[in-house]
Amino acid sequence: MALTETEAALLALIRESPLAAPEDLARRLGTSRAAVNVHVSHLVKKGALLGRGYLLPPDQGPGRVVVVGGANVDVKARTLAPVVPGTSNPGAAAQAPGGVARNVAENLARLGVAVSLIAAVGRDSLGDWLLRETEAAGVDVRAVLRAPGVATGTYTAVLDPGGELVVAVAAMAATEALTPAEMQARRGVLRGAAWVVADGNLPPPTLSHLLTLAHDAGVPVVFEPVSVPKAARLRPLLASGLAPHTVTPNVAELGALLGRALPDEPGALHAAAAELQAQGVAVVWVRRGERGSLLATPQGTWELPALPAQVRDVTGAGDAMLAAFLAALLSGRPPQEAARAGHAAAALTVESEFAVSPTLTPAAIQARAGLSPQPQEAP
């Protein structure tokens, strides 16, 4: 269907500034916000937009990954002397982009994978900064929700002089704004994707709707539990037949997926992975920290050792592990080699002071994991 002159002008503005708020578009068009919403609805109906304020990422090829979940600002404060409770302590602080989904997305981008992020941040200065930093890292952020009346999520950690955590405050309510309706409006981004990553920060109704949308689009989903309480969000969905393709829990999270505590022993982990596979999960990758991991696939099960590393900060290791695993699968490596690549990415990350290591490249991972280059990968 042909576009009206106003619809064409609005579409051009959205292409130019995909993160613009409706009131900004209304001002530039010389009309009202209500009128902009009506024109957007017409553009969706005519197929020019795939959802309100959202355009399908262009020219990203069949290897694109969509990551859905948490995006926040990490603030780390370290005291210069032993902590004295109840008063001010001299120290130093640093701010960095964070959030499981956001970190996974940046790691994928650093590994040369086209990636789109679906998350929720506030219409505030922290949200502006977080999206600028994430986009600069190579992540498509056009599907990120700018939620009104919501503050961008923050994770604030206070460390003692030795780097041990004293206290942390997680203010992550922004992700609650990513409702099933907002997910529905962004369903177009799933089309043609190779993988969807869902982190456990998603509200249960949104996680359920995302699994349904991905199933309808024929896109496999990786579920990253994030924590023991959030891992449990998947249990009722498994019982209802909404199983992701892959889950990546640690041992405690694996127990939460099954509703019981598990010992960190190979026999128990093999049996637990088989239980999840009987519920429709194809791949179970259990992270065991210094003990490595256990990877269970329809083709077989492997126990992989952790790689030695000079640990500086463990933050973000699991996010890098998952990103490298998917990047390796997309390059054509078999699952067990992809898991080795994941362990290499984790080792590189814990040796860095950053949650996303600036040294993370395909070549660095190949060298650390002892993998031969793939024809598709950079040497």
TrEMBL record:
Keyword Membrane carried by entry: no
Molecular function terms from GO: kinase activity
Record lineage: Bacteria, Thermotogati, Deinococcota, Deinococci, Deinococcales
Organism (species): Deinococcus arcticus
Residue intervals of the HTH marR-type domain: 3-48
Protein's name according to its UniProt entry: Carbohydrate kinase
Domain Carbohydrate kinase PfkB: 64-357
Entry annotated with the keyword Transferase: yes
Transmembrane annotation, as ranges: none
